[in-house]
Amino acid sequence: MHSNRDKEEMDGGGEIEGADENEFAPGSSRGGRKYSPVVAHDNDRAVLEMSSIDPRSSRQDLKKVKVSMQPDVASEEIEGSMPNHSVNGPQKESKLELFGFDSLVNILGLKSMTGDQIQAPPSPRDGGDVSITLERPRPTAVKSGTLMGVFVPCLQNIMGIIYYIRFSWIVGMAGIGESLLLVAFCGSCTFLTTISLSAIATNGAMKGGGPYYLIGRALGPEVGVSIGLCFFLGNAVAGAMYVLGAVETFLNAVPAAGIFKETVTKVNGTAIAEPITRPSLHDLQIYGIVVTILLCFIVFGGVKMINRVAPAFLVPVVFSLICIFSGILLARHDRPAVGITGLSSESFKENWGPAYQRTNNAGIPDPNGKIYWNFNTLVGLFFPAVTGIMAGSNRSASLKDTQRSIPVGTLAATLTTSGLYLVSVLFFGSVATRDKLLTDRLLTATIAWPFPAIVYIGIILSTLGAALQSLTGAPRLLAAIANDDILPVLNYFKVVDGSEPHVATFFTAFICIGCVVIGNLDLISPTITMFYLLCYAGVNLSCFLLDLLDAPSWRPRWKFHHWSFSLVGALLCIVIMFLISWAFTVVSLALASLIYYYVSIKGKAGDWGDGFKSAYFQLALRSLRSLGASQVHPKNWYPIPLIFCRPWGKLPENVPCHPKLADFANCMKKKGRGMSIFISIIDGDYHERAEDAKTACRQLSTYIDYKQCEGVAEIVVAPNMSEGFRGIVQTMGLGNLKPNIIVMRYPEIWRRENLTEIPATFVGIINDCIVANKAVVIVKGLDEWPNEYQRQYGTIDLYWIVRDGGLMLLLSQLLLTKESFEGCKIQVFCIAEEDSDAEGLKADVKKFLYDLRMQAEVIVISMKSWEGQGEQQESIEAFSAAQCRIASYLGEMKERAQRDKSPLMADGKPVVVNEQQVEKFLYTTLKLNSTILKYSRMAAVVFVSLPPPPANHPAFFYMEYMDLLVENVPRLLIVRGYRRDVVTLFT
C-alpha cells in the first residue's frame, strides 16, 4: 500500500523547516523522494487491513491473517482473507460496523486471548515487530503446575545445607528462645518478600531473569541491572556454598577419604576423651574444585536432563527428614551417641538460654578462637536457610498459570519450611546436651534412624542438586541481563533464544571455583546473605512504589498485599544487613551503587514503564497543581523559551533545526536548569501530513538530544505558518508551565532572496506574542553565535530604552554564567531627555543595579548629544536606501488604490500611512543604529528593545525600520518584555 514508506520517513524529513507551502504537497518530489498522503484510517491498522479483506473467503484462511501492531510501520502485508463469520458463529449485523468493531473483536478481542501471549520487547529500547499471528497452536513443552513448577523447586532451594550441618549448632549457640526468635525474624523477612513477589508477579506476563526482570521493570533499567548483577553474584557464590557443604558432609561421613587430616583434642581448653576429626581446609579446597569442575561438565552436557531430574533430588531430602524426626522420637539417653538425652524437659531448660562464645574456624568452642558469635552473626549464618523463594518465579516460562502458581506455591514453600524450622528448634534443643549440639556438626546424621548414612546421602544429593540449580540459574540470569542490551560490556554473555549460555556458565564456574578456594562455609554464607537481602529489598521496594503510586496499569491478581507490608519488608532487609555486618553492608551497597552509576553512564537509555517514571509523573502533576495558574513571583521566575525552529528559508539536509538555536537556548538557562520547547510548523492538511509530522517530531527530538539541550519537541500541522503559530502561542503548555519567551531568528534573508511573504508573517507573529502576553527574543546574526567552547571577550551592551520588567538585564546575567561569555562585562546604555537628567538617571540606574546584585557599567546618552552627533556613514547609506524602497512601495500602493478605487491596502487589509510618522520612525532607528555602531561595534553581544509594530502600518514598512535598526550589527538580540517583572529587589 505504501512502498518503502518507512525508509522515506527515516531518510527524509531533513528539510522539515523552511519550506514553502508546496514543498510537502502530496506527490511532490524533493531530492528524489516523494511524500504521498496518508490514506484515511491509516492510524487504525486493524481497520485498514480489514478494508482489503474479501468477505467471501473461506473460514480456513483465517489463520493466515497477520495484524501488525508496531505504531511506526506504515505498510502492512495481507497474507490471507477474513471470513464472513464471527468466531462464535455467523456474523450478525452490527450497528458499530462503521468503527470496524466486528473486525477488531474477531482479531484482537477473541482470537488473541486464546492464542500465544504477545511477547514483550527484548530490550528497553523500542522493540522489534510485535505481532499477533492467528495460526494454529504449536505443540509446546509440557507446562508445570503449582506443585512441581513452584512448590518443589522452592522447597528444594530453601531446604539446604544450613539445616543439615549448621542448624543444630545454631540452636546450641543461641539457645531455644533466641533460635525461635531468629527463625521468626528471618522467616518474616522472606514472608513479606513473598507477598511483594506475588503481587508483582501477578501483574502481568514474566520473561526470563526472575527477580531481575521484576525489579528492572518496576524500578528501571539502572536499578534492575545493579541488583540483578548482585543477585547473580549471590547465586554464583551460593553454588560454592552448596559444593563445600556436600564435600564437608562427605569427608565427615568418610574420614578416611581426607588427604590432610586434622583432629581437635581440646574443647574450651579441656582435653576430651575422643578426638574430634574435622575436614582439613586443603581437603575442602581440592575436593571442592574437583566437584565444581564435574558439575560444570554436567551443566555443559545436559542442562535439559538436569531440569527434568532436579525435582527427584527432593525425594532423598524428604526421606532424610523422616529419618531425622524418627530418630529424635526414638532417641534415648546416650543412644545413639554420648550426649543424646532423648526428648527431655531438663535438656529443654538447659538449652533455653544462649551460650555465645568464641570458636575456631570449624565451629568448635575455643576461648582462643578467632570468631566470636552473637545473634547478629547467627542471622548472617542462618539466613541462607530461608532463601530460595525466587526459584518458582525463575521458572515462569514453564508454568501453566503463573498468576496462580507463583503466589500459592511460593507462600506454601515459605510457610512449610518456616514451620519445619520452628519445630526443629524445639526438638533439637530437647534431644541433646549443649556440648553435643556445639561439637557435633552432623547431629542430624547422628540421631537419624535407622542409619546415619541416609542423612549423609540426603545431604549430599540435596546440596549437589542445589549447586546444579545455581550453576544453571545464575548463567541464565546473566544472559537475561546481557540480552536486554543495556550494558555493552555484557555483550559477550548474550545468547540466542533457545541456546545454552555457555560463556555465562563458564564465567559462573570461575566465580564458584574462586569461592571454593576460600574453603570456609561460615565466611561465604554472610556474603550470599548480603546479595540475597539486597535483591529482596529491591523486590519489596518495587512493590511498595507500584502499590503506593497505584497507576492504572497496577492491577495484580494477588490481592493480599499493601504498600505498608512491602515497606516493612524492605526496611527489615536493610536492618538484617546491618545486623549481620555493617562492613559487608557498606561494601554490597557500594558495589550496587557503582554498578548503578556505571549503567547510568555507559548503559543504553530505555523506557520500561518503571515505577520511577510513574512517580515523576505524579510529582509533576502535583507540582503543576501547586503552582496554580496565578502570576509567578519574580523570585521564582524561570525562562521557559519556546524555540521557533522553522527558519526563514531552508536548512541543510537532515537538519530539523538551526544548529545555533539549541546553543542559544542553553544560554537562557542557569546551570542547565529550565526547559525549552522546540516547535516547528509543517504547512498542509493535518489528515494528509500527520505521519510526516510524527517523523519530523522524532527527528527534532533526536537532534535536541544530540545537541544536549534539555527540551521537548513539538510539530504542528497548519495551513500556513501564521495560523500554526497563532494556535501554538495560545495552547502550548499547562498552567504556569506555559512558555513565557518566544525565541526566533531574525529574517535577514527576506530581501536578498525576495521572500515577499515574510514581512506579513513576521509582523503577525510579533503581534500574536504581544496579544498573548509573551516576551520576545529575536536573534540577529545567529550563524555567528558562539558555542560553549568559543570564548568571547569584550562587553555585553544593553540599550535599555523601554521598561521590560528586567528581562534584558536578566538575560545578560544568564549569559555571564556560560563559559563562552564569562569573560565579558555588561554595559547599560540609557537615554536621557535633557542633559540635567543624565547624572540623576545614571545614579538611579546604578542604585537599581546594585539592589539587583548585578555588576554593570552605566552609560547615559542624552537626547541633545544624540541630536548633535554625526551619523555613521553606513547608517546614512542604509537610511537612504530604506527611504527609496518605502517611497516606491507607497507609490505602488497609491497606484493600486486609484486603479481599484479603494483605500490603501497592504497585506490584505486597509492601512493608514502618515508619511511624516514614517520619516520619524526611520530617523529614530537611524539614530539608534548609529549609536550602536559608535559605542558597541566591538561588543560580543548587543541587546536592544524591540519596538512594537505600529498600528495600521504595512508590514513592509516595519521590516524596513527593523532592517535599518540591525544594519551592520553582527550579533544582536532584540528583546521585548511582557508586562511582568522577572527580577526583584527584595530577598
Overview of the molecule:
By secondary structure, the chain is of the alpha/beta class. The protein has two domains: 151-266 and 275-602, Amino acid/polyamine transporter I; 641-886 and 914-976, Rossmann fold. The chain contains 32 helices and 22 strands. The strands form seven sheets. It has a ten-stranded mixed β-sheet, with helices on both faces. A two-stranded antiparallel sheet has the order 1-2. Strand 16, helix 27 (807-816) and strand 17 form a beta-alpha-beta unit. Helix 6 (167-201) runs parallel beside helix 19, helix 8 (221-253) crosses helix 9 (281-301) and helix 9 runs antiparallel to helix 18. The longest helix has 35 residues, at 167-201.
Q: Tell the overall outline.
A: elongated
Strand order of the largest sheet: 13-12-11-14-15-22-21-16-17-18
Mean pLDDT: 76
Low-confidence stretches: 1-140
CATH homology-level superfamily of the largest domain = Amino acid/polyamine transporter I
CATH topology heading of the largest domain: Amino acid/polyamine transporter I
The helix/strand class is: alpha/beta
Kindly estimate the percentage of residues that lie in beta strands according to DSSP. Answer: 5-15%
- Biggest beta sheet attributes: 10 strands, mixed
Percentage of residues assigned to helices: 40-55%
| CATH architecture type of the largest domain | Up-down Bundle
Overall tally of domains: 2
- Whole-Å distance between the termini? 65 Å
Task: Name the CATH class of the largest domain.
Answer: Mainly Alpha
Number of strand segments = 22
